[in-house]
Amino acid sequence: MLSAKSVFGEILDDDESFRLFCSIAAGGESQGGWENGRIAALVPPDERALAPKIARHGADEDKHGRIFQALMKKRGLQPVDVPHDTDYTMLLEKHGIGLAHERLKTDEPLSVQDIVTYLAHSRVTEQRASEQMRLLLKYFADHPDIGRAVRMISHDEDNHLAYCHEELLRFAYAGHGRAIQRTLHACALAEIRIYRDVSLAVMDRMGRILHWPHAKRQLLTAGIHALYGYERAGGWRRMVSLKMPARRDALGGPAAPAPEFA
């Protein structure tokens, strides 16, 4: 029976597909760590109190990248280059979602509107990350190889999402509500399209590595398009709503250390 658990199980059990999966994940997390680190360094003077939380966000992302690298090393695997069409983070940046990397490479302080844009982008992408990790948590929390990593990363992603909700609501109360909703809407519609394209590219490569039959590839492709259809029809709205989270000040302390993988 074809299910999310069986598909992920195949990917995790094969060295080549596992290596590609971890390489893609590590690359995206490391890129997110760099972005958050630069944003923390460029926070405008009036929002300096936010800098430690942004830095914590970046430290978590860096930690996740190291975790995926360690998972590969544990199985004696080397990372592979991330194919361009599977690079979710870079494709978002290429399509103007979030803050441009060229801007982050300068030393000019960001504006409050830049911070609002960053938080809105993060609110959308952290929704996706939280949902993906909860799916892995559902099926693989006790997996002997990735269980500890899944539990830690899922907890972190939920913290990131809570932080985005809380900070965006603070900015909304300060008068940025319309800009926040406008930015969230644009980010969400772009993200669901890019996520569809990246999912198709990843599944195509996994199918070739794992020698999936044509019928299975067609079924998975249809599932990806069906998810996009649902999200385009209204599912994107879950990415733009804001509510005060149960986890308050979720990034108010230092990042937890990464687990050791013998």
Q: What features would you describe in this structure?
A:
The protein is an all-alpha fold and 262 residues long. It is built from eight helices and no strands. Helix 3 (51-74) crosses helix 7 (147-210).
Essential attributes:
single chain; 262 residues; mainly alpha; 8 helices
Summarize the structure.
With about 260 residues, the protein is mainly alpha-helical. About 70% of the residues lie in helices and about 0% in strands.
Rg over C-alpha atoms, rounded to the nearest angstrom: 18 Å
Structural class: mainly alpha
Counted by DSSP, the helix tally is: 8
Instruction: Identify low-pLDDT runs.
Output: none
Subunit arrangement of the protein: single chain
Element-by-element helix/strand order:
HHHHHHHH
Overall mean pLDDT score? Answer: 95
Molecular shape: globular
Number of extended strands: 0
Characterize the largest beta sheet: strand count, sense, and whether it forms a barrel: none
Q: What fraction, in percent, of the residue positions are helical?
A: over 70%
Termini Cα gap: 34 Å
What fraction of the residues are assigned to beta strands by DSSP?
A: under 5%
